[in-house]
Amino acid sequence: MKRLFLSIVFLCGLLIAEPAWATTYYVNKSGSNRNSCATARSATDANAKLTINNAATCLSAGDTLIIGDGTYTELLLNIFPSGVNAGNPTIVRAENNLGVRINGGDGGGTRIKNYKK
Question: Is the pLDDT at 36 greater than 90, yes or no?
Fold first, then answer.
């Protein structure tokens, strides 16, 4: 009976754990679009991508994109992949609460906290 219980607990853990293929990428105003996707996995500011659009090319379903503080003048249209399922979405979020502003070039802007697709 103890074995059965431990097996069930282990299987439940597998179902809710983040998949091995999920990766976190970083965008920061100190970054560079010359940085590779592999380099942009590091939270170090200089290793990040410079633009959200460029970093989005690294994303696969279920990945996370963390955006550093600043204003990003970019038009973001259908650039993020859909999540694997509702329990494992692709996540785009600000590194700090309300520290990111997306300005699509029209003078307006949107603050980003957390976006799931």
Answer: yes
